[in-house]
Specification:
The structure holds 2 protein chains of 2 kinds. Chain A is mostly beta strands. Chain A is built from 11 helices and 58 strands. In chain A, the strands form 15 sheets. Chain A has a 22-stranded antiparallel β-barrel. In chain A, strands 16-21-22-19-20 form a 5-stranded mixed beta sheet. In chain A, a hairpin with a 4-residue loop joins strand 30 and strand 31. In chain A, helix 5 runs antiparallel to helix 6. Helices cover about 40% and strands about 10% of the residues of chain B. Chain B is built from 20 helices and 11 strands. In chain B, strand 10 and strand 11 form a beta hairpin. The N and C termini of chain B lie far apart (about 85 Å). Chain B has a domain of about 220 residues: Serine Threonine Protein Phosphatase 5, Tetratricopeptide repeat (Alpha Horseshoe), CATH 1.25.40. The model of chain B has no long low-confidence stretch (mean pLDDT about 90). The chains are: A mainly beta, B mainly alpha. At the A-B interface, strand 29, strand 32, strand 33, strand 34 and strand 38 of A face helix 1, strand 1, helix 2, helix 5 and helix 20 of B. Strand 38 of chain A pairs antiparallel with strand 1 of chain B.
Chain lengths: ~1150, ~525
């Protein structure tokens, strides 16, 4: 029996050593051809302490081109040795390692180890492998794990051929060899691969060894991969297992809590993540890496396009994370520091998220299905009073105001008893609205992947369908993706591949904004009829004078539908060529075509009122129809050319990457419509309807980016690590002469655990690292440096009158003039972010625990700001590079995974991030609420000091009349901060930040026998929310008060109440932005919980299924927060999102199934 | 084969990349300056934009806020009215002495003028790029230089030395000091000389600037700056051109109707701001029409009693001297121009008498500027009567004053004055029996006459002659102190309009806006004395 092992057969190189001369010279001047070294001449430096021989061989493989093939029983390869050699001949090193008991057979770069025959003469030790005779043609075997359990589905490949098979359910396989002397490679996910030389044997028992070494983990970095142990930058990684079973429409929210340094802020519950990430009206989460780096977004983070959003690349191409199928994701890398991100230059200032999709692996096709169905329900929605309580409190408010009561005792009695459902109903439109949708969600993904030595493929097809909790507000999406690679030719130097992906998504909704509908419903009077018995929709006149709106009718009738279709296709091809064994060059062209198409259709709708005197229904409100069609087309073309060079000289490991990239983005839009259509309209196309009210708009934006970039890695023996990156970017967004700039970064690491003096059984790895670099932010807008002309007045305008045509008459003829539209800022340039980072990584207790911590300081300069300019400019001031912001913080991540001796495996991953930002320079344009020293997301207002309990308290307090009139007992008392005796706007101060200082995540899971369990927690702390609207103010726009306001408003008898006195008059005084209404927004959310059961092999065998898992799961299951009645996250990053008028949060329960065929 | 395939791929990528224009992107929904200014058509559109500044507020609501249209309400002859926020009303800072560096009104005029100058500078910077007929180009340039000089005359007359901005500035260019008063004046005069050389004697289209306009403006500016001989020469050039005459209409009311819409572009008009509905109208009419009247105006322009009293009696004597003056019938036996210039209680307007609240409300004086009303269209709305900025009568009176002050008094001075007076009486200047002609050659007598003549002939129209006259004559502290009165009310008492206050130690110049000093730096940008 002969079993041979290599640790990483995939990296074996069978190519001829023949050097191919470079017949053409590109701009890569660095290209070197490697010198051929023969085994006998190769020198190596090595320094290992107490390592298994297997590992030592791995290291030699890593440092040379040679690959070792050997039988495990010829020597004790697990024996631990210490070895030190400087520039010694490899043969001498090996002889020392094997105590001269092994001989070496060489073919190309392969080294076959054999036991030394006593009779052999040492001078003939090095032989040709061709001397080994093989006669076997048919091979049988069994693959088991180290505990003897069969491994079904293990891949067996005859190397150098397309010949392969997989093991059956008992781990057995058989294969007919194509060649003599073949080497079989046996691999299985999670286990170390083995290669066997068949030689004269036909039957093998193969034991694969579980690979629990996280040190060999490879991390996706910019334009490549890097061994985790050699990383010097700050990168957080998420693997597919941690998200692929999350039944969410939106990858952004699936990332919440899982990547230290990433703040995910979900602020709406509307299905579908449209309008890019963090769209104002979708459930997509806004993303911020290490805080908010720039000023200028309306509220910091939720709007798109955002100056503060990270760059998201899917397989290296700018992509839309919100329409991605989670099943397609292989890994997510978050590049946080400048060292990791600088290779993306002007787009990297807010961090980079690299998403890699799944590729096929060598072996028999694996066909997987993942699907499920579930339902969502409103969660954390306001609990509001009923009609009787409403009327009672309203009367109390009127009484406090000294006004006549509105509701009679009879009214109150009818609502109290419910005796008159026709005249005194208790209709809660809000409850009806947020339960009007069925909330059903179903999701499916079918994938096939596999490959041979030369080919691999992965194909997936997914469908996701989500119905909202509000009718009309639905989302559906179909994704496909094909990743295919083919190695061509006998020498296997040429590889080609394609990545094709497409998504067809539709976010449907009402022509009314979700927020508007919700506000209408929320503020509807309880006594108003929604729909008459004869089916007519009511205009809501009974208790409200003339609201003319009926949110339920708007979605049920419906008033209108607005369907937004998204088609996003990415086609990418690449060619890769190995110029030498060390030098590869890869060219790639990607074409992305992203089309959006909106159909906006308003029906003709009438709402009625019942007129009792006529005993008939009259039209109370009518809405004319309209049709609008919107087309947006975005075309991105990305060309990349990348050369990589890797070389090891003794203990010196070099790698160099040089690249060229060019991107061009063209975005075109047309929006045309016809409005004021009357009469019932069933025509959906513009040409079919009345053209008298036509509207049409269109625009096009083109931008280009051209870049060269490079990276140099060097490490000495994987002990001392250095990396430098630079990207030289030129962008069309900046002036011709200054549009190019370089963004460098430098980093270094020290693997202490590799040092001789570091002798610890606890640490498998201990590394400290530091980095520094500069990044740019070009998301400042297009053409700002171009002097543009227009025919509308846009200059400094005394009364702010815009859009006045530039026209003048000569004689009796009017002529149109053209004039500058703005002062071009010919000096406009990037916002520049400088990040310094120090970090520590450790791996302890046999890799069962890992710990990573980073401290960073991030400074953004040249933030664009519009500063006042002298009027001799003669125009409105342009925005210029002026402001500065600092972000400072740390991240800690701890993981623990363990496999007990029993059937229990478990893991716990936790992370904590802290970031605090501060505006450090505004070039003198400080204004109340946004001054140097303030956080970017500043809440600004009065400081409240309780409620006035008596007139005496009011008399003794500073003057509070600036809100209009004097306060009365029961009103909020504000503090006179500047002690001038008067409370006025100069007494406002910073009340805290609405961006979280702390974010944390916890994911944990366990497997026990066939059961598995996992959960994801996400949380944030150290921030405030300014609560507003009906959440704090009873009868805000006549809305029902919250249940917790009942008996909790100030009266003389109830002076301890939280809320000020009930009133419907002077609302301004008590509802100023003030500390009274700011709340601690800290929260923890159970984002996901999942329990699964995998059927045992005994059942699966009979079903011819490799794996079948059933699970139940829930999303957004539990919130822990001081803030009740609303999703606490709605305040995260936007003080005004924290409104009861947002599309509410929902909770989702689902069942699902994973099958592998 | 593989090499070839690879080469093809690589070279195709590089070909993609080697387009030099790849990073030169231009806005697709806006014209880009780099790509504009190619042709004569482009140049013409640029020219229109410069002219459009004259009527820029035209289609907006507050068009009458610009300096020229409210200049009378900075003097003794009128007061701004209408609602408190109206720009006319805000001009009271120049009458009650409250003007200060932080006054928003001062900043607004400053911004308007420098905004307009920028449009002109932008044109002048780019015009050479256009491929066009050289004569046409020179003509355009001359027009724009005239307009820029025109805006600079307003800066110079009111602020003295100001920064001479003669090209579009970037934000890095703004830390510049004021030029001296003399430098600004020399610049204006030289610009007007230069543009006059290239301007046509008569315009191809009414509304375009002519050589006459350049000379007339130059005469006005030289007069304002007491450069009398030069002013007389400039005025004489206009008079000798033979292009202009005093306008007379069928009713003999040419003084009133010279600016009326029915007579636009008449021979007396040297330069006017053209309005044409529906493309370009203004609310000026609405603003100045009497309130509480059939016309529903805002009453933004209220005439004072001193203006009424300035008109002579038909015997050529002032009301305090003339035996013909009847205090009980003060409008009787007066220079015919009085009843053409002022509307008073009981007068008919659009078929409805001025009465009641129209004349009695607290803010009203009972006196309205009749010449400014558009008699073709009355009532609320957007209308398009041209605004006459330069007319021939002013040139004659400028000539006269320049000659009087330079001590070169001769018959031509008397003729110039008498031409204007005779037109008022609907006769020719030689018909000395039918109007009170001027005969004296005494300088001080003539000085008194010409000053009165300029007031009654030119004030309460759309220009700043009265404002600059009272400054030049150094009488501002006399006429802008004490109480401003309106017409008598029913009790026979003069209505009190406001208290006037003029500090001669500082108010002859306006303050530089404080924000300008703050932003440019007080070490660079100096304030005028007294502020």
């Amino acid at each position: 029996m002969k079993i041979y092992q290599t640790s990483d057969v995939e990296h074996l190189c069978y190519n001829s050593k023949t050097k191919m001369k470079l017949t053409f010279v590109l701009f890569f001047a660095f290209m070197l051809s490697a010198l051929a070294n023969t085994f006998g001449q190769t020198e190596i430096s090595i320094n290992v302490k107490n390592k298994k021989i297997v590992k030592v061989l791995d290291e030699i493989e890593a440092k040379t081109d040679f690959k070792f093939i050997y039988r495990l029983d010829i020597f004790d390869f697990n024996k631990k040795v210490s070895l030190k050699a400087e520039k010694a001949l490899i043969k001498d090193v090996l002889d020392q390692l094997f105590e001269n008991k092994i001989v070496y057979y060489i073919r190309d770069t392969k080294v076959l180890l054999k036991q030394k025959d006593r009779n052999e003469v040492s001078s003939t030790l090095i032989k040709s492998m061709d001397q080994i005779e093989t006669i076997q043609k048919s091979i049988n075997g069994k693959v088991t794990d180290d505990e003897g359990n069969p491994l079904p589905g293990a891949t067996i490949i005859e190397e150098g051929t397309n010949n392969g098979t997989t093991s059956d359910f008992d781990g057995n396989f058989s294969i007919i060899l194509e060649n003599e002397n073949s080497i079989l490679k046996i691999s299985y996910v999670g286990y170390l691969s083995q290669s066997i030389i068949t030689e004269d044997r036909s039957n093998f028992n193969i034991t694969l060894i579980f690979d629990n070494s996280s040190l060999d983990e490879v991390v996706v970095v910019g334009f490549g991969t890097q061994k985790k142990i050699n990383l010097t930058g700050s990168i957080a990684v998420l693997e597919n297992e941690q998200i692929e079973n999350r039944p969410t429409s939106n990858v952004t929210t699936a990332l919440a809590g899982q990547l230290p340094g990433l703040t995910v802020s979900q602020q709406r519950g509307r299905p579908g993540g449209m309008n890019g990430q963090g769209g104002a009206d979708s459930n997509a989460g806004g993303l911020n890496v290490r805080g908010v780096g720039s000023l200028g977004d309306p509220t910091g983070i939720v709007y798109f396009p955002s100056k503060n959003a990270p760059l998201v690349l899917i397989d290296g191409i700018v992509g839309d994370m919100t329409n991605l199928d989670v099943n397609d994701i292989q890994s997510v890398s978050l590049l946080k520091d400048a060292a990791s991100a600088a290779i993306y230059g002007v787009r990297a200032a807010n961090g980079v998220i690299l998403i890699t999709t799944k590729k096929g692996k060598t072996g028999e096709p694996i066909i997987k299905y993942h699907g499920g169905i579930g339902v969502s329900e409103p969660y954390r929605t306001p609990e509001r009073v009923g009609a009787f309580q409403y009327a009672t409190m309203y009367n109390a408010a009127l009484s406090n105001d000294g006004s006549a009561l509105r509701y009679t005792d009879d009214d109150l009695n009818k609502w109290s008893t419910g005796s008159s459902p026709n005249s005194h109903p208790d209709n809660d439109q809000y409850e009806q609205l947020i339960n009007s949708g069925n909330g059903i969600r179903n999701f499916h993904n079918l994938s096939a992947s596999g490959g041979t030595e030369k080919t691999n493929y992965s194909l997936s097809l997914g469908h996701f369908d989500e119905n909202g909790i509000i009718e009309l507000f639905d989302y559906s999406r179909t994704n496909y993706r094909l990743n295919f690679e083919q190695t061509i030719g006998a020498n296997e130097k040429l590889k080609v591949g394609v990545n094709l992906s497409g998504v067809n998504a539709m976010q449907s909704g009402s022509t009314q904004l979700a927020g508007g509908l919700i506000e209408n419903a929320y503020t509807a009077h309880p006594g108003d009829v929604i729909q008459y018995e004869n089916g007519l929709w009511a205009a809501g006149q009974d208790w409200t004078a003339a609201s003319g709106t009926n949110a339920i009718a708007f979605v049920k009738a419906p008033l209108g539908t607005y369907d937004q279709n998204y088609n996003d296709y990415i086609n990418s091809i690449f060619v890769e060529y190995d110029l030498t064994n060390d030098l590869k060059i890869r060219g790639r062209v990607t074409y992305r075509n992203d089309n959006k198409h909106g159909d906006f259709f308003d029906n003709f709708l009438k709402l009625y009122r019942y007129n009792s005197s006529l005993n008939d229904y009259t039209v109370g409100a009518s809405f004319n129809g309209s049709i609008r069609a919107q087309y947006d087309k975005r075309k991105d073309v990305t060309n990349q050319l990348i050369a990589t060079y890797q070389k090891q000289i003794n203990s010196h490991n070099f790698s160099v990457l040089l690249g060229y990239e060019q991107l061009s983005f063209t975005s075109t839009s047309i929006d045309a419509g016809r409005t004021e259509l009357t009469g019932n309209n069933t025509i959906t196309q513009l040409n079919g309807v009345d053209p008298s009210n036509d509207q049409a708009f269109g625009d096009e934006i083109i931008y280009g980016l051209r870049s060269g970039f490079g990276r140099v890695n060097y490490n000495f023996n994987e002990k001392y690590l250095f990396e430098a990156n630079v990207r030289y970017d030129g962008t069309s967004r900046f002036p011709t002469d200054t549009r190019f700039a370089a963004f460098p970064s430098f980093s270094a690491g020290w693997n202490l655990s590799e040092e001789n003096f570091f002798d610890s059984d606890i640490f498998q790895n201990l590394k400290i690292r530091a980095s520094w670099g500069k990044l740019g932010n070009q998301e400042v807008g297009d053409y700002l440096f171009r002097q543009t002309l227009g025919s509308l007045v846009s200059r400094e305008n005394i009364f702010g009158l815009g859009n006045v045509p530039i026209v003048y008459s000569f004689g009796n003829t009017a002529y149109t003039g053209l004039d500058e539209t703005a002062v071009a800022n010919s000096d406009i340039t990037w916002e520049t972010t400088t990040i310094s980072d120090v970090g520590i990584d450790m791996s302890i207790f046999n890799n069962k625990v890992t710990f990573t911590a980073d401290y960073f300081k991030k400074t953004t300069n040249d933030i664009l700001l519009s500063l006042p300019q002298p009027a001799i400019l003669g125009m409105l001031p342009p925005t210029i590079n002026a402001a500065s912001v600092d972000n400072e913080g740390f991240e800690i991540a701890i993981t623990h995974q363990n496999k007990t001796s029993g059937d229990l495996n478990y893991f716990i991953n936790t992370n904590l991030s802290y970031v605090k930002n501060e505006i450090t320079d505004l070039k003198g344009s400080d204004a109340p609420g946004r001054s140097v020293g303030d956080p970017i997301n500043n809440i600004f207002g009065y400081v409240a000091d309780g409620i006035f309990n008596s007139q005496a308290e009011i008399d003794a307090a500073p003057d509070q009349t600036s809100f209009g009139g004097a306060p009365v007992p029961g009103d909020i008392r504000y503090v006179d901060i500047n002690n001038d005796g008067v409370v006025d706007p100069s007494d406002r101060e910073s009340l805290g930040s609405y961006f979280p200082e702390y974010t944390f995540g916890l994911t944990a899971g366990l497997n026990w026998k066939n059961f598995d369990f996992s959960m994801v927690w996400q949380g944030a702390a150290g921030f405030k929310a300014l609560t507003t609207g009906p959440y704090v103010q009873p009868f805000y726009n006549a809305a029902r008060p919250l249940q917790n306001m009942v008996n909790n408003t100030w009266t003389e008898q109830n002076q301890g109440a939280f809320y000020p006195r009930l009133s419907v008059a002077n609302q301004a005084r008590n509802y100023q932005s003030s500390s009274y209404w700011t709340r601690d927004s800290s929260f923890a959310k159970l984002r996901n919980l999942q329990i699964g059961y995998s059927l045992p092999p005994s059942i699966l065998n009979s079903l011819k299924i490799k794996m079948l898992r059933l699970y139940i799961t829930g999303e957004n299951l539990l919130h822990i927060s001081n803030i009740k009645d609303l999703d606490p996250e709605f305040a995260n990053g936007d003080p005004f999102a924290f409104s009861a008028f947002s599309y509410p949060s929902s909770r989702f329960f689902s069942t699902g199934i994973n099958i592998t065929f | 084969m593989k090499k070839i395939l690879f080469l093809i791929t690589i070279s195709s990528i590089i070909t993609f990349s080697c387009n030099d224009d790849f990073l030169e992107e231009y806005p697709q929904s806006q014209l880009s300056e780099d790509l504009f200014w190619q042709s004569e058509d482009d140049a013409f559109q640029g020219l229109v934009a410069v002219y459009a500044r004259l009527g820029e507020r035209g289609s907006a609501f507050d068009e009458w806020t610009t300096y020229l249209w409210g200049a009378n309400t900075m003097t003794d002859v009128a007061m701004g009215g209408g609602w408190a926020s109206s720009s006319f009303h805000r001009n009271d800072i120049f009458q009650n002495g409250s003007v200060n560096p932080a006054s928003p009104t001062v900043l607004r005029y400053w911004k308007y003028l420098y905004g307009s100058i920028r449009v002109a500078n932008n044109f002048l910077k780019n015009i050479e790029r256009a491929e066009m007929d050289e004569t046409v180009r020179r003509g355009y340039i001359a027009e724009v230089r005239f307009l820029r000089a025109f805006w600079y005359t307003i800066l110079s007359d009111n602020w003295g030395g100001v920064p001479l901005v003669i090209e579009p500035l970037g934000i890095a260019d703004l830390k510049i000091p004021r030029n001296s008063d003399d430098e600004v004046k020399a610049f204006i005069i030289s610009e007007l000389d230069n543009s006059a050389a290239d301007l046509p004697a008569t315009a191809a289209d009414p509304g375009r600037i002519t050589r006459g306009a350049a000379n007339a403006l130059k005469a006005r500016f030289l007069l304002n700056n007491e450069m009398y001989p030069e002013a007389a020469v400039a005025a004489k050039a206009v008079m000798d051109s033979g292009t202009y005459n005093l306008f007379q209409d069928a009713n003999g009311q040419g003084y009133f109707s010279v600016g009326q819409q029915a007579n636009e572009d008449n021979s007396e008009v040297i330069f006017s701001i053209k309005f044409n509905m529906p493309d370009l109208g203004n609310y000026y009419q609405t603003a100045i029409m009497p309130p509480a009247h059939i016309n529903q105006g805002w009453g933004a322009f209220m005439v004072s009693q001193v203006f009424v009293d300035a008109f002579e009696c038909v015997d050529g004597m002032t009301i305090d001297q003339s035996p013909l003056f009847d205090p009980e019938n003060p409008y009787k036996n007066r220079d015919p121009r009085l009843n053409m210039a002022v509307l008073k209680e009981g007068d008919m307007l659009a078929g409805s008498p001025l009465a009641g609240g129209t004349v009695n409300d607290a803010v009203n004086t009972g006196l309205y500027p009749n010449k400014a009303f558009n008699y073709l269209h009355t009532g609320w709305g957007l209308y398009d009567m041209d605004i006459v900025l330069l007319r021939y009568a002013e040139v004659l009176l400028t000539y006269a004053e320049a000659k009087i002050e330079s001590g070169t008094i001769d018959q031509s001075v008397l003729d110039a004055i008498n031409h204007v007076r005779a037109r008022a009486y609907n006769t020719v200047f030689t018909d000395v029996d039918n109007y009170p002609n001027v005969t004296t050659l005494n300088q001080s007598e003539l000085r008194e006459i010409i000053r009165r003549e300029r007031n009654v002939e030119l004030a309460n129209e759309h220009n700043d002659t009265r404002l600059q006259d009272i400054k030049r004559w150094r009488i501002a502290e006399d006429v802008l102190n004490g109480t401003m009165f309106g017409a008598k009310n029913d009790s026979g008492e003069y209505r009190v309009m406001q208290q006037l206050n003029f500090d001669s130690s500082k108010h002859y110049l306006w303050p530089i806006p404080q924000s300008e000093i703050d932003l440019i730096g007080s070490d660079i940008m100096t304030q005028n004395p007294g502020y």
